Amino acid sequence: MRRTLIAGNWKMHGSLSSNAQLLAALSSGVDEAVAADVLVCVPFPYLAQAQLALSGSKVVLGAQDISERAQGAFTGDVSGAMLQDFECRYVLVGHSERRCLHGETDVQVAAKAAAALALGIVPVVCVGETLAQREAGQAAQVVATQLAAVLKHVGVAAFSRLVVAYEPVWAIGTGRTASAAQAQEMHSGLRAQVAALDADVAAGLRIVYGGSVKPENAFELFAMPDIDGGLVGGASLVAEDFLTICRAVN
Ligand code: PEP
C-alpha cells in the first residue's frame, strides 16, 4: 500500500512575512483528517524559518535542489549535509526548471539523487516531456530515458527510498493539466519500467503527478491507480488551495 504524498514546491516565491502566514496555516491545517504525507519544498534562505514554524506539525520540510558534491569550491551550491542541518527529509532533483534553465543533464540529476540517498534524504526525481516532444509522439521515450539514467546510477533497490514525479513541462505553471487518463498512462509506463527490474520495488514506488494541480482537478488525478499524489507549484502558495488538495486524497 503506497501512502500518498502531497508536495508543495514554492519555487522562488515567498518572504519572511508571507511565509509566516502560510506555514502557520499549513501547520494547523494538516491534521489527522489528511490521509497523506505533506511536504513543502521552500527556497534555501527560508529553511530555518520553515524548520521552526513546522516543528511539531505533520508537515515535513524539503528543499528544491541539492549539490551532487559533498563540499568545496562550488559557489552558490548547497550540499546535502547543509540540508540535513535543517531537517530536510526530501529534496527535488531534476525539476524541469533546473533542467531547462540551468542545463542540468540526466547524468547530473542522477548524481544529485545519489547524493541525497547517501544521506538518507528522499529525492523526488522529476521527469517529464516538453510539448514538442509530446506532439512528436516521444513522451514515453523521453521520460523513460530520464528515469533510466537514475536507475543506472543508483540501482533499482534504491527506488524503494525515492519518489518519482511525472511533470509534463507543458503543464507546469501553464494552467493546462494533463488529463487524469494521460497522466495515468505515463505513470503506469514508468512503473512498468521499474517493474521490469524489480516488481516489488515498483509496487511500492510512489509516483506523483505535477503540472497545474488545483483543488478542481486534484480528486480526479489522485483517484487514478498509479498516481500517488501531487507535486504542486502555484497552488501550494495559497494555504486554502493547498489544504483542499491535501484533503482530496481518497
Ligand atoms: C511545479 O512547480 O513542479 C509545478 C507542477 O508547478 P504548477 O503546479 O504551478 O504547475
UniProtKB/TrEMBL annotation:
Q: Which Gene3D superfamilies match?
A: Aldolase class I
Q: Which superkingdom does the taxonomy of this entry point to? A: Bacteria
Which of UniProt's keywords are assigned here? Answer: Cytoplasm, Gluconeogenesis, Glycolysis, Isomerase
Q: Which InterPro entries does the record match to this protein?
A: Aldolase_TIM, TIM_sf, TrioseP_Isoase_bac/euk, Triosephosphate_isomerase, Triosephosphate_isomerase_AS
SUPFAM superfamilies membership: Triosephosphate isomerase (TIM) (SSF51351)
Q: So what does this thing catalyse?
A: D-glyceraldehyde 3-phosphate = dihydroxyacetone phosphate
Catalytic residue list: 95 (electrophile), 167 (proton acceptor)
Q: What is its EC number?
A: 5.3.1.1
The yes or no answer to whether the keyword Cytoplasm is present is: yes
Biological pathway: Carbohydrate biosynthesis; gluconeogenesis; Carbohydrate degradation; glycolysis; D-glyceraldehyde 3-phosphate from glycerone phosphate: step 1/1; Carbohydrate metabolism; erythritol degradation
Which amino acids does the record list as binding substrate?
Answer: 9-11, 173, 212, 233-234
Checking CDD domains in the record gives: TIM
List the Gene Ontology MF annotations in alphabetical order.
triose-phosphate isomerase activity
Could you tell me where this protein is found in the cell? Cytoplasm
Give the PANTHER family listed for this entry: TRIOSEPHOSPHATE ISOMERASE (PTHR21139:SF42)
Protein family according to the UniProt entry: Belongs to the triosephosphate isomerase family.
General function of this protein: Involved in the gluconeogenesis. Catalyzes stereospecifically the conversion of dihydroxyacetone phosphate (DHAP) to D-glyceraldehyde-3-phosphate (G3P).
Quaternary structure, per UniProt, is:
Homodimer.
Q: What is the official name of this protein in its record?
A: Triosephosphate isomerase
The uppermost taxa in this organism's lineage are:
Bacteria, Pseudomonadati, Pseudomonadota, Betaproteobacteria, Rhodocyclales
Q: Which gene encodes it?
A: tpiA
